[in-house]
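User: Run a structure prediction on this.
Assistant: Running it now.
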Amino acid sequence: MNLRGIATLLYKEILRFSKVWLQTLGAPVITTLLYLLVFSHVLEEHVQVFRNVSYSAFLIPGLIMMSVIQNAFANSSSSVIQSKVTGNIVFILLTPLSHLEVYLAYTVAAVVRGLAVGLGIYLVAIFFVSLPVHNVILLVAFAFLGSAVLGTLGLIAGIWAEKFDQLAGFQNFVIMPLSFLSGVFYSLHSLPEFWQQLSRFNPFFYMIDGFRYGFFGMSDVSPWLSLVVVAFSLLLLALFTLFLLSRGYKLRH
């Protein structure tokens, strides 16, 4: 394992988003805070999902995880597509790094950005709403696995896309619908039976439901089932990404 090579590429990727932290870290925190203020103001007195849990408190874990996964996806996907469009992807391909090492560097950078955004939202949100913590280990596990899944999916999207508008289409028609329809703003049990069953095929639902369990000790499905689904999704996507990298799919011309 070329640890120095992984660390160098990881440093480059972290430097890439930290240099513009106001856009990559600050903006998602402000956007999520606006979601919280608007929805909690409108629905606080009308909706209660879990017993003894206010709707504002219920919203926060879902909003945190939604921002974590969206920013993890944006980090890896934008990095790859920019490198492809500008042509500097060749400098990554020429390095003495294996496909696994390249994958690890990009994915860990996506995880770092996702977790940084999530931590920022949490620190701001607790000034507005009292938020208990039921299980720290599960919180960290779901945050890490969720951001790794979306970082991997971002790599796949970046490899597949040939133009920025293709990547935008992937984000707008795949990532955004799956994240908004994953139980961020509602409980699974509040849906009609058909939509409940359909939601169970959405892996984003298990990320958010398991993450919410880490705060309240309550969830729509077993947190262990959610953990297995998310971990299995990461394994499948990681194997597929390694296959694409090993073939040089849309990377080598």
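The chain is about 75% helix and 0% strand.
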